[in-house]
Amino acid sequence: MMASGSDTSATSSGGSVRALARGLAILRYVNRMGETRPGEIAKALNLPRPTVYRLLETLEELGYVAFSATSNYVRVTRFAAALGDGYALTSELSQAAGPLFAEYGQRLVWPLDLTIYNNAAMVIQETTHGRSPLSIDRGMTGYKLPVLRTSAGRAYLSFCSDEERLLILEHLRRLNDPEDVPFLEPRWLEQLFEQTRARGVAIRDSGEFRAQTASLAVPIRSGGNVLGCVSIIWIRSAMSTGKARETFTAALSELADKIAGSLPD
Fold it and tell me: Is the same domain home to 174 and 103?
């Protein structure tokens, strides 16, 4: 009987250690990727999908990961910030934006995007494209948008610090994307920043990216820093830019302020 009990204890202990090892491997993978789907985790770590979902649920209960409110992506939370790489703030932004996007998405109808700047691109973290009846795009979470040819990128550049703006522009010049070249002309940039700051909202409406649509974007600001941007996208033939500014600017600014205000201290 004692031997049997010892065997059971050893088996239980071995199973717990294996589960812990798998959970830590999943947490490290999510942290490294920034955001990912359970299926991608299962494939990358060669684990059964049910096991991945079960361990993710446990990690979520413990506060180390969070599922997106608008997609099947999972991210680390602030409690996993010790793992490094700065993805905790992105996760907090996404968690704050999720319920607010649901609320404002119903009010504004046209799709909304939450983007952050990362490595010469604005990356969509949350979106209502999948729920908006007026969207012509789907599966936009994780999509990388060009900085100079989107309202989100223009908003970010206009309101970030001078030092960060110079670094971003230098990076874009080194990349030398032919589609970006016309928008890197110093006088054009100076005018863009001046107009965007005066309006409080950035505009894309000349077919420079996704010719069927136009967009407005405002920055999410906290402590003097730009954390990301909120955009609204509409079909160009359905509404003029002037009408869109009149209809959406105040609501977008309010939404950005609420997201910033929802972040933990």
Answer: yes
Place of tokens 């999510």: 30
The pTM of the full predicted model, rounded to 2 decimals, is: 0.70
Contact criterion met (CB below 8 Å) for 240 and 224: no
Q: Does one domain contain both 89 and 62?
A: no
Q: What is the number of other CB atoms lying within 10 angstroms of the CB of residue 236?
A: 18
Alpha carbon 42 to chain centroid, angstroms: 22
229 HSE (CA, 13 A, CB side): 33
Nearest-angstrom CA–CA distance, 221 and 228: 8
**How many structural domains comprise the chain?**
2
Q: What is the pLDDT of residues 212-251, one digit of tens each?
A: 999 999 999 988 889 999 999 999 999 999 999 999 999 9
Q: What is the DSSP string of 23-86?
A: HHHHHHHHHHHSSB-HHHHHHHHT--HHHHHHHHHHHHHTTSEEE-SSSS-EEE-GGGGGG-TT
Q: Which two tokens stand for residue 151?
A: 């309202």
